[in-house]
Amino acid sequence: MPGIDVLELIGGGLAILGIFTAFMVWAIFPLLPFILMGTVYALIRYGVPALGRAALAVEHGTIAGVRWILHPLAVWALRGPEPATARYGDGRGRRR
Question: How many other β-carbons are positioned within 10 Å of the β-carbon of residue 94?
Answer without folding.
Answer: 7
